[in-house]
Amino acid sequence: MTNTQLWFRGVRPSKFRHVYGLPTRKECCYTDISVVRSGNDGNFCAVNPTFLAIVADTTFVVIPIATTGRIDFQCCKVIGHAGQILDLKWNPFDDHTIASASDDCTIKIWNIPEGGLVNNLTNYVTELVGHKRKVLHIEWHPTASNVLLSAGFDHTVCVWDTGNTERPLLNVIDCHVDMIYSLAINRDGSMIATTSKDKKLRVIEPRSGIVVSEGICHLGTKCSKAVFLDNGRILTTGFSRHSDRQYAVWDQHDLRKPLTQEVIDSSSGIVTPYYDYDTRMVYLAGKGDGNIRYYEVVDEPPYVHYLNQFLSGQPQKALGFMPKRGLNVHQCEVFRFYKLHAAGNICEPISMIVPRKSTLFQSDLYPDTLANLPAIGAKEWFQGRNVSPILMSMKTGESIMEVSNGKSNRNSIESKIQRTHSIHLANGNQTNGGTNTNGHTVSISNGTDKNHQQQQQQQQQNGGNYGSNLTNGNNNNNNHSISVKQQQHNSLNKENEQLDNRKSDNNTKKFAFLSQPTIPDYRPQTIIEKSQKTSTNQSTKFHQLQAIFGQQTTNHKDIANLQNNLLSNSRNSSRNSSLENINLLNSENELRKAFNKQADEIKSLRKTLNVSEKRVRELEAEVKRLQQQLKQHQ
């Protein structure tokens, strides 16, 4: 019994089991883009909620995210590199700042103007020079501002401070002995992971360059990729010794043996992993493949559960993904790819959607996600401090820091108002302009100032009745800030009330529908075969006609009986049969003619039958006569 229970576990519950990929219509894609035709596996597409950047050999185009359809081939580009661009990354804290890594051994930081490019952009903000060979990968720090990490073909990893124009290079990590295949950074930026051509996976502390752990990753010679999961785990993709594509999950503190390792398939394209910290889903997309597989990550073995795959007939050259703050929460969109087609100059958005009937905000699908605010400065981070990233609400769009600051400011304002209100009550018996025990002058409105009364009425309409109004000139700024905070607070309350009203309206409609009385249906539910039903109806009609018109003396009685039978049978018959019976009674003359015609035909048939029988008898008599003659001759 125990073995059976261990074997049969049933269906694993998951709210992401039915996630599906939704491709975009052609008119909503980005077409006629001069996509780079290089064979590298770099990141040729970068997206944020404002712009889409696509590499075009030594330049790259920047398109506003809302400008879809056909893109002019002479559109404005970012020009400045002398070699091919190998990687693009938007600054997570500034939607108008982008970094580009090139074959010319440099990294350039660009500032895109508001509304997009009007002319070709040739002036960069910062140029980072430190690699001796081409720069393959770049990554922005997820919590520290202006911190960039880069990996080059010279087997080094550089840590940059892009805000420092004099000495931007903070550290150089030279622990690798061969080409670096991938560069990943964890959630708080305290560790980085690299895979290299020597088949090793390394976890490195970026500020000191100390290798925390290393181990053999995948035994294949082709490129391998790595991405950080949560809870101190790393997922890698690569090739086995027999060139099978596979993925593996590792503990970042012990890389001697993987926690789990599975074979994907036997294709040859390099698989790139994309991890979503909010939904704990990992997406595996192979270069040259037409599908995107997605899995769910859990804390127990086997650590990764296969969910489904998005299938497409067009192979992909590269993929970019939208940050979580740019998704459509009303469509239950949990991830969005921007797919560069390998054949054709098309960039196609692909939305990963959880099927839900409601269009309201789904709090279980959208926990607080990364905000576009840095949690720490570059100098402070390089001195050794690790800070968790600042989160923002997907429902309101406000960061947690702003909400906490707003609450603290509101509490301080309310405490000031309470203190002034207590002063007002303590000096209630004094005249206007009197002085309290602390020496502060408090003026009490006596109702003669009309402007003051109008301001008080407006504050009461906005829900900001915080006690008596102070007219001292030293408190005007405080009163203005209080009114602004009150208006913001009231707008939030109105939005919440509207949502509550919508929910209550929906509930009342549901209850009203359910409270309606149900009308029972007493019609018979038995279904008779068509042939049986047709033969039964025909025989019944024939007998009814014969009973009515066969005997002229009992004609009226039979009609009355037929009417009674029809009325009694109408309760158990359908509407069509009742209409046929009523038409039968209304067309009595036509039925009489038909019956007479059939009777005449029967009579004629009987006459012919009698003639044929007579002829048979005559022939039989002739045969007997001939037989007797034959006997006599013998």
UniProtKB/TrEMBL annotation:
Protein name: Coronin
Similarity section: Belongs to the WD repeat coronin family.
Coiled-coil stretches noted in the UniProt entry, renumbered to this chain: 602-629
Pfam families in the record: DUF1899, WD40, WD40_4
Annotated source species: Anopheles arabiensis
Domain of life: Eukaryota
PROSITE patterns noted in UniProt: WD_REPEATS_1, WD_REPEATS_2, WD_REPEATS_REGION
Biased composition (Low complexity): 427-441, 453-479
